[in-house]
Amino acid sequence: MSNNEVSPIRIAPSILSADFARLGEEVRDVVAAGADWIHFDVMDNHYVPNLTIGPLVCEAIRPHVEVPIDVHLMVEPVDALIPQFAKAGANIISFHPEASRHIDRTLALIRDQGCQAGLVFNPATPLHYMEHVMDKLDLVLLMSVNPGFGGQAFLPSALTKLREARRRIDAWQQAGGQAILLEVDGGVKEDNIGQIRAAGADTFVAGSAIFGQDDYAAVIQRMRAEIATAESRHV
Ligand code: DX5
Ligand code: ZN
Fold first, then answer.
1. Sign of the torsion angle spanned by Cα atoms 102, 107, 112, 114
2. In the prediction, which pLDDT does 235 show?
3. How many C-beta atoms lie closer than 10 Å to residue 221's C-beta?
4. Which helix (H) or strand (E) holds 107?
5. Contacts (Cβ under 8 Å, ≥6 apart) of 234
6. Given this model, what pLDDT does residue 7 score?
7. CA 158 to CA 8: how far, in whole Å?
8. Nearest protein Cα to ligand 1, atom 6
9. Separation of 136 CA from ligand 2 center, angstroms?
10. Which of 57, 185, 212, 224 could form an SS bridge with 205, CB 3.0 to 4.6 Å?
């Protein structure tokens, strides 16, 4: 976690597109290839129409990598799973505000369990959910697809929303608030990651774009190069 303060950007491969029969090897390989985080998608066939992995799998991959495990909960209800994921070695836990009856309480619970806390915004979820809980956020995650599946196309409306989220987070930090990371998830590829960086993201989830290639290191390097080019143009 100490890297968070020094590294301005993070690449977080989503293991949703990994080979589940060889998950330990997949996470080791992608970290060796330069991944900063492992993004861990939890789907419950209730909040989203798909069913994936839970705390047992998080616990199983934990000894294979030292990088932070970024747990994205697409589940409803949320709270009971938080201590289970904390115990399973999660570092960051994010949830969708629509899936919790008490957003402030859920955020506090994540931090009480020793993890960093994030709120996730679907494409049509308004950013105002963050307004009264800025002090409890370590991460804001904007979905650039509707949640539930890997391999979907990036929704361009996410770029406008990203700029607005960037503006809110910058204003908060300039007023003395704590650091809040801004992550984007869904349809992130080599050919749009520069635009996404320019719109204000600092943390990039990519599933099919990385695990769909043979050479993970090469694609991560090309993503970093696209980000660097975007920074040299816009910053
Ligand atoms: C979608 C998940 C994403 C997904 C990203 O509900 O939250 O993390 O795995 O996959 P790609 O990068 O293929 O869109
Ligand atoms: Zn995700």
1. positive
2. 55
3. 14
4. helix 103-112
5. 197, 198
6. 60
7. 21
8. 147
9. 20
10. 185
CATH of domain 10-233: 3.20.20.70
Supply the pLDDT for residue 233.
Answer: 85
**DSSP code string of 176-209:** TPPP-EEEEESS--TTTHHHHHHTT--EEEESHH
Phi, psi of 229 (to 5 degrees): -65, -45
Which of 10, 11, 15, 16 for a ligand 1 pocket mutation test, highest count of atoms within 8 Å of Cβ?
A: 16
Residue to mutate (ligand 1; options 120, 189, 205; most atoms within 8 A of CB): 205
Going from the Cα of 57 to the center of ligand 2, the distance in angstroms, rounded, reads: 16
User: According to the model, what pLDDT value does residue 6 have?
Assistant: 42
Please tell me the distance between residue 185's alpha carbon and the centre of ligand 1 in angstroms.
Answer: 6
Residues in the chain where the model's pLDDT stays below 70: 1-7, 234-235
Q: Give the dihedral sign, CA 138/122/58/32.
A: negative
| Residues designated catalytic | 41, 185
Q: Please tell me whether the peptide bond between 63 and the residue prior to it is cis, using omega within 30 degrees of 0.
A: no
